[in-house]
Design goal:
Layout lengths: L2 E11 L2 E11 L2 E7 L9 E4 L4 E4 L1 E3 L4 E2 L2 E2 L4 H12 L3 E8 L4 H17 L3 E6 L22 H11 L3 E6 L6 H10 L3 E4 L6 H10 L3 E2 L15 H8 L4 E5 L7 H10 L4 E4 L11 E5 L2 E6 L2 E4 L12 H11 L4 H8 L1 H6 L17 E4 L5 E6 L2 E4 L15
Parallel strand pairs: 1-4, 1-5, 6-9, 9-10, 10-11, 11-12, 12-13, 13-14, 14-15
Antiparallel strand pairs: 1-2, 2-3, 5-19, 7-8, 16-17, 17-18, 19-20, 20-21
Helix pairs in contact: 2-3, 5-6, 8-9
This protein binds zinc ion.
The site of zinc ion has 6 residues, from loops.
């Protein structure tokens, strides 16, 4: 196995920043980490990286595509979209599926299962639809939303097997609390989202086994002082992680900062990116729906409904630190260790430590991605010297 020594670099992970450091990647693992003054073991190649910062690879719990390609459209489009996000620092991805006809969702689940078995950077699938509140459906087609019936759930679990990593459920739907138990018992991370649930019902869902909130603040009631709703229930429960879409559009930077203050180690920065991420303005599809992207903001045609984002995780980092004023180690934690913990992989993903995966992102002084190693495989970053345009095609 080839060993690579990255030296003369600053390390930044959830434990903070360490200057003048080195790290050795050995195949798909980190085999040694040290500071200047400690002699590193010999390696097959050495790369000096003065003025740069190395972070763990970003883990995206929630995304739908990028570079003009959508995760619902089969294996080639999934691969194309993942390559775009890889160039922006994402090294492990959960593949989110929108509401579609049941047979089509089953087929998508089978495709993701096949891909996850072959590619360690594909974590599995996220059923964002079809168990959503119709009044809070966002960019999910209303005709494909269904109640969380145990027979439907069994069909989906059969199609996706253990590759189904997450499901979003509106707890007020008939049978929803039993569905939370059914999915949790199958090892699936259950998220509350796209919901009208009040605080009490949201707490019931958490007690039944839900541990995540799908893009907190979006597609749910806001905080009211006499009716706190799902947001306060999520803030208040230490068992629960809060997905946040930090693109400057989905939530105000001040609200993002408040979220990090209220739940500092329980925020996961996700993209919820649709096909336009890493692409440009224009016309796109999200599932069966038409979306127009203008000024980087994706809207369902003919509505004022935000249809996913055009975010990449490096941009979320810049927005968190440079715009919202979030501490850099906390922001990095929200992109790395926290999502790893949600997935039950915090012992091997999300830190720059010996034994952890060789998932690392090299950032320049402006937090642009220069190079990426995912499971030890190196690719060019979207902001690096070898990058072509915005990173599209940087395979
Ligand atoms: Zn989504």
């Amino acid at each position: 196995m080839t060993t690579t020594l990255l030296t003369d670099v600053e390390l930044l992970d959830a434990d903070g920043r360490r200057g003048d450091a080195w790290i050795i990647l050995d195949g798909d693992r980190i085999s040694a980490v040290g500071r200047a003054g400690e002699a590193p073991p010999t390696a097959d190649r050495t790369i000096a990286l003065p003025g740069r910062t190395l972070t763990p690879g970003f883990i995206d719990l929630h995304g739908h595509g990028g570079g003009g390609a959508a995760f619902d459209n089969g294996i080639d489009e999934i691969r194309a979209a993942l390559a775009v996000h890889r160039a922006h620092g994402t090294t492990r991805s959960v593949i989110s599926l929108v509401a579609n006809p049941l047979e089509q969702v089953e087929e998508s689940l089978r495709v993701v299962a096949e891909l996850a078995a072959a590619d360690p950077t594909v974590v599995g699938s996220h059923l964002e639809g079809p168990f959503l509140a119709i009044g809070r459906r966002g960019a999910h087609a209303p005709e494909y939303l269904v109640e969380p019936d145990p027979v439907v759930i069994a069909r989906l679990l059969a199609a996706g097997g253990s590759s189904i990593r997450q499901v979003t459920i509106a707890p007020e739907l008939p049978g929803a609390i039993a569905a939370v138990r059914q999915f949790a018992a199958a090892g699936v991370v259950v998220a509350v989202g796209h919901t009208e649930a009040d605080e009490k019902l949201t707490r019931e869902a958490f007690d039944a086994g839900a541990t995540l909130v799908t893009h907190i603040f979006n597609a749910m009631p806001g905080i009211h002082h006499r009716d706190p709703g799902p947001i306060v229930a999520g803030f208040d429960d230490d068992r629960v992680t809060l997905e946040l879409v930090l693109d400057g559009v989905h939530v105000h930077p001040s609200v993002a900062q408040m979220t990090f203050r209220a739940a500092p180690h329980r925020v996961a920065l996700v993209t919820d990116a649709m096909a336009a991420a890493g692409g440009g303005d224009g016309y796109y599809r999200l599932g069966s729906l038409n979306v127009t992207v203008q000024g980087g903001i994706a809207m369902l045609n003919g509505t004022q409904t935000i249809a996913g984002s055009t975010l990449t995780q490096d941009a979320a980092l810049r927005c968190a630190v440079d715009v919202a004023g979030v501490d850099e180690a906390l922001a990095i934690e929200a992109l790395t260790l926290t999502p790893a913990r949600v997935l039950g992989r915090a012992d091997e993903w999300g830190l720059l430590r010996v034994g952890y995966a060789a998932d690392v992102v090299l950032l320049d002084a402006e937090k642009q991605v220069e190079r990426v190693w995912a499971a030890g495989v190196e690719t060019a970053g979207a902001g690096g010297p070898d990058a072509a345009g915005a990173g599209v095609g940087a395979a």
